Amino acid sequence: MNIKEKTSKLLENRFGPVFLATLLLCSISLLTRVTLLIYSAASFDWSVLNLLKVFIIGLFYDLAAASFAIIPIVIYVWLMPSKWYGRKFNRILLFIYFFFVVFTLIFNAISEWFFWEEFSVRYNFIAVDYLVYTTEVIGNIRQSYPINSIIIGMVVITTLIVYFLRGIITQSTFNKTSFGERTKIALILLCQPVFTYFCVSHKLKYLSSNQYVNELSGNGMYDFGFAFWNNQLDYNTFYKTLPIKKAESVLSHLLQQDSASTFKNTSRNINNPGAENRMNVVLISVESLSAEFLGTFGNTQHITPQLDSLAKQGLLFSNLYASGTRTVRGLEALSLCIPPTPGQSIVKRPDNHNLFTLGSIFHSKGYNSRFIYGGYGYFDNMNEFFSNNGYEVTDRSALKDNEIHYSNIWGVADEDLFTLSLRELDQDYKNNKPFFAHIMTVSNHRPYTYPEGRIDIPSHTGREGAVKYTDYAIGKFIREAKQKPWFSNTLFVIVADHCASSAGKVELPVDKYHIPMIFYSPGHIAPGKFEKLTAQIDIGPSILGYLNFSYDSKFFGQDVFKMKDSDERAFISTYQSLGYIKNNKLIILNPNKKVAAYKPDFTTGSAVTIPLDQKLTDEAISNYQMASYLYQNGLYGFESKKK
Length: 643
Prior knowledge:
Layout: H1 3-12, H2 16-39, H3 48-69, H4 71-79, H5 82-85, H6 88-119, H7 125-130, H8 134-144, H9 147-164, H10 166-171, H11 179-199, H12 211-216, H13 220-229, H14 235-238, H15 244-255, E1 268-270, E2 280-286, H16 305-313, E3 315-321, H17 327-336, H18 358-364, E4 368-373, H19 382-387, E5 392-394, E6 407-408, E7 411-412, H20 414-430, E8 435-440, H21 463-481, E9 490-496, E10 514-520, E11 528-530, E12 534-535, H22 539-546, E13 551-553, E14 570-573, E15 578-582, E16 585-590, E17 594-600, E18 607-610, H23 614-632
Parallel strand pairs: 2-8, 2-9, 3-11, 3-12, 4-5, 4-8
Antiparallel strand pairs: 1-13, 3-10, 6-7, 9-10, 14-15, 15-16, 16-17, 17-18
């Protein structure tokens, strides 16, 4: 019996619809895999072995996903009485079911394409996270893509496929099987998802050093389900650990350089002799601003003229690395100054009130600490987090309709955000309050739309236009701030929250974490470059150090202006891979208590495996383990000395 005859026999069986549904899922998943492979051809590590990994392991995960997807049809054909099975209403129900199946599979394939285009990975907990904010996500999709045309196209293609399969769909309706016989088959089929849930490892696809090989070996639907159930990763359960006393001892050695007294966990006293420099501070965290966009770092597109000018007038940090790949990671690093813990950002976790933050330090010094955001602050839990951790929150709801020149689903145009910010800062100055303001921009984000007539690139034409518009808005803000009486006593810190893309051939491509930062304060800061390796979590302590503040600190970050060459290091991460850069080496901690060492190329992002450096490994483990330990045990809280 040839394959065609065997397939025909399976389709004519009572459980033929189950086999057909599985075949459709695997076929469309295969087509999706091939399409993504072709799209990523330049970054794929081409070899026969890698192709076998992609398609064999990929088929395994396709079948794993199918074991869950077929549950409804298995139950249906099992429980449907044989005397009803051949009737017209049964055929109608099967047609409806397969229309839904095919439409869902096509919808998923297109969604995977867009997700891959944005992140170069299969679904992960970011995709799950988007379900919480359907208004913003659906709005972003509608503003970025011709969604109505896409849906119409999907309906037409689905209809054609179901019409083409109409004979196969109804083939099994005349096959009669006793309840006992089909119960045995149904129970076997229903045990498969149970086996998959408990016995199939999500890590099976991670068999290559090339990240594209690993991701293409997966199945988006299976990965989505895994991420849904596992978007929190307990450090002690999944990662390599040290005895807690040893981890604390390693951190003590690393952090005592800026401390003048006893050390407990990360708590120590920062003592800066002399008078405090009580300047205002405006911290602008710019959405998705990769260092590679700036002419200062070699870009020739001339899309950041304002930032390039400010870089020449201020102190440019040329060797700074972001903690993660999403805004909430940047906000976590800038406010908490703590290494990124695996899973969800602390900004979005429960029990994240009254933590030790940069805003709480400024507040304790008599400053008005603000977080100002151009969108609605409920997104990514920003209002909840900042308002309960030492900041006064202002979002787009503070603007009247006639004050908004332009907005998209993420928020108002950056120029309107800065107009709002100037208004709030003027009020603080009028009230004789020094201020610390963290301003979060939104315009440099898909759908890349902004007011017309500001720059020479039309709206909605791509990332370069959004970068140039954000640059324009920052330049306009600085020019308007120069007219304010508080400008001469203000430090402006302009930094990215993360890069525009995190995709690379390796697990953690270091070039995709390289971000710019400028300290700008005419009359206070001389033009220059700061070239030491700097972590995003160092920004808060360095601002406080520049202001010569003395305070009790719990920060993992350090004052880079006092940092010795031997103390240079940076943290980079995804939601599960935790990286530690030091001495031109990269230590990566992964679930299943895996540790690996690499020598990264900071220009291309590629990396080669090297033997583990035990000292650096212990430092990496200590930082990440203690960050998780302090948060989970309520030891990273802020204790004000004010009565």
